[in-house]
């Protein structure tokens, strides 16, 4: 699956007009869970 969660960003940009959705993850304690982060189009001049 592929998830993009930008709800908190929209909530901040719109001063609360748009609200981010509440969500939670159900964890299976018998299996490992992995998360990865992917950045796209980053400006190389930013340090």
From TrEMBL:
Q: In what residue span(s) does the Isopenicillin N synthase-like Fe(2+) 2OG dioxygenase domain sit?
A: 1-41
Q: Which SUPFAM superfamilies match?
A: Clavaminate synthase-like (SSF51197)
| Coiled coil spans | none
Report the superkingdom from the record: Eukaryota
- Show the PANTHER family listed in the entry: 2-OXOGLUTARATE (2OG) AND FE(II)-DEPENDENT OXYGENASE SUPERFAMILY PROTEIN-RELATED
The name on file for this protein is GA2 oxidase-like protein
Primary gene name: PpGA2ox2
